[in-house]
What we know:
Helix content is about 25%, strand content about 25%. It has 17 helices and 47 strands. Strands 1, 2, 3, 7, 10, 13, 14, 15, 20, 23 and 26 form an eleven-stranded mixed beta sheet that branches. A six-stranded mixed beta sheet has the order 27-28-29-31-33-35, with no helix packed on it. A hairpin with a 5-residue loop joins strand 2 and strand 3. It starts with a helix and ends with a strand.
Amino acid sequence: MFAFFFLLFTALIYHVFAQVPGFFSIDCGGTEKFLDEIGLEWTPDKLVCGNAANISVGSENTKPYTTLRYFPADSRKYCYTLSVEARKRYLVRASFLYGNFDRNDVYPKFDISLGATHWSTIVISDADTLEVRELIFLATSPSISVCLSNASTGQPFISTLELRQFNGSMYYTDFETASYLSVSARINFGAVNNDSVRYPDDPFDRIWESDSIRKANFLVDVAAGTSKISTTTPINVNRDERPPEKVMQTAVVGRNGLLNYRLNLDGFPGFGWAFSYFSEIEDLGANESRKFRLKLPGYPDITKATVNIQENAQGRYRLYEPGFTNLSLPFVLTFSFGKTADSSRGPLLNAMEINKYLQINFGSPDAAVISGLTSQYPQADWAQEGGDPCLPVPWSWLQCSMDAQPRIFAILLSRKNLPGNIPSKISKLTGLVELWLDGNSLSGSIPDLSDCTNLRIIHLENNRLTGALPSFLTGLPNLAELYVQNNLLSGRVPRGLLDKKVVINYAGNINLRPEGKGPNHTNIIVISILGGSLLLIIVIITCCFFFVRRKKHQDNEKDDASGLQPPRKTTSSQSEGPAETAHFFTYEEIEDATGKFQKRIGSGGFGTVYYGRLNDGKEIAVKVLSSNSYQGKKEFSNEVSLLSRIHHRNLVAFLGYCQEEGKSILVYEYMHNGTLKEHLYGPLTQERAIDWIKRLEIAEDAAKAIEYLHTGCIPSIIHRDLKSSNILLDKHMRAKVSDFGLSKLAVDASSHVSSMVRGTVGYLDPEYYISQQLTEKSDVYSFGVILLELISGQEAISNESFGVHCRNIVQWARFRIDNGDIQSIIDTSLQGNLNVQSVWKIAEKAMQCVQPHGRDRPPISEVLKEIQDAISIERGSESEDSSEGVSRDSRHSSLNLATNDPGVSDTFVSSFDDDPIVLPTAR
Length: 923
């Protein structure tokens, strides 16, 4: 009898599992199988990499989230491989609950990818908030890999990983062979509580979020008069892939004739798939009707025809599902449904679903070859890394090119205890440059690698290889190093190898010798004598080189101490030397131009700035260096040498210098409208405020200047002191970057760790401060701070503006932006005169610019593109305003700041009005 009941109980459990075919749920870090509260079976992961951890979770239905698996914060990726059926569509869902598992209170940030395709960046902002990512895809192979990588902070981790198979044509799109669908919003409107609707109510276990939830990336700006309704009457949803009945039995209605929402859409802007779901669940009288239209601001051509739910759905309690399968959507989506004039009832909305098209990266063309290679070593740890061999990061024993479809150029399998023959599949890696197979137990002959024409370095030493050195080696055009020592090779070393400029070592192969009749002892002696003589010559030349270099270094130090001295004096109308040589002004000329330094227009840590006018009428700004220190003269020399060779419309024009009478003087073009800082929160804020589109244009000008320094100069130049006071404005309010006293050539910065960190508090790259390693991304950080200043009109550092516990603009803005509260950081003088979508674009890009690690910051060219996109959005808004009688000229009338007599203008302030800081070496 006991056996009978045991079999019956087992059969019942099997029946429960059989109800959900195609479901696979992994409890990451778990140790045993279990059934959760809704009847789903969870299986523990069995990864040999990473570590398991337990966390405390207080709410119900959270057993799968009480464990997690975390991985080292290194340069590798860590993958789960799941079996799928080709040509079937699936939903893959990954969940992350931090729970302070590492007891460090360091919120992790890392990437998740599906195969070679970057899926999402996971940013943990709260220890107890569950982060969920969902992706819909068409399987094209028997398995998929979900990988974690690129930790910026903390350690990558994952709580659960789920796979759900769909039926038939569910979520079919015309683009599914080239794009995945990344789920951005799936909303159950009118939900009776905060609980999500999922399995078993949804047979595919999609998660329909309640619209009652308020969080940073969900619903805000709900229209007044919005109320919830529900019914228990069954709803005909037509097919099971549509929203489940429970979702369609609730709705919101606009009692005042309007439903209005704003959503922050994860992953957007971009192209997406968006559907609304309607079902009439209210009783309408015989003479009543419900008709409404959709309005998307900025999309005048998408105003839908009138929606009449009963008519469109052909009856009450039936589903109607209008939508777009390919629609460009912004990050901040504002939409509304408004009733028509002939409608007696306001609009109704049951559910909505929005997915973004995520372009598939098909990965390295060499993936199949490498997969074949690793299949020969199924037990080796190095062969278990999973995912694409190159993306998002290469396997630990490979190096790949930087192409969008990267090729493998190095195999690094030294001392991996490899048995058997050298895999012949390597010959198909036509991009291979380096092959390191030394220190293994490889036997047999060297395979034909003649198709690998890019091979430069081959290491096969310390194996058990037999046979002759193959002749194809002589035909490799780029071969530079060949190491085959300590093998069992025999025969002759091809003369073609000995005649080429190839470093070759074949010692320890007792049966392998050069082509010829045998060793020629006379030649060996001659070669030894020649080698000794050559060594002596090299030693002598090296000593001479260091003597000359030391002498030159001493001369340079003398030059630095005395400053720049021209070979002869010239007048202002003359030039001297090549085009790249700085123009030299006499002290007498400078006195005449400035009226003996009569009009001071600015001052700062490095000097005083005076207004001047040359004999030809050209207005100039004359900066007189106030310090006679060695460091001051070094910076003076640095600025002269840099500005003499760089020219760009968005860099303040350098006209020349003077070094006489114990003075060090720099001469620039005069910038009539002072600094950006003055117009944002300086003395000109009230009388000469600048609107949002002008701020964007200023940002564009400055970004173009930085892009030129980073990419248009060879070697590139790192400014190192970008700030709003170093962005000057000309008479047309065009921005130009100034002050190169602290700038460095990138080639110098990358090869030298400075003992003194230079920059200005509030704009200083924290990574540069910690490591003393300067890169172009340090400028990007500073520029991100400037973008935040442009949005907010706030200073970079303030003891009053940001609250008791926050002094810097980055920390203040990040908290608000991460919580979706963009309005609270927008300069009050801009309110009502901008398109919030363009502000979001700049705010998001600014947050990327000020990431703690340089590798996470975008290049300045990417920032420039985003600024230009924001300008396009604003100009599109202007076009709409113009049609209503508001011209751009009238909006910008306050920006005509040039005076009729520039000589009496007091608006120029020196770019040195903030004292840069000098910080000691970080320990």
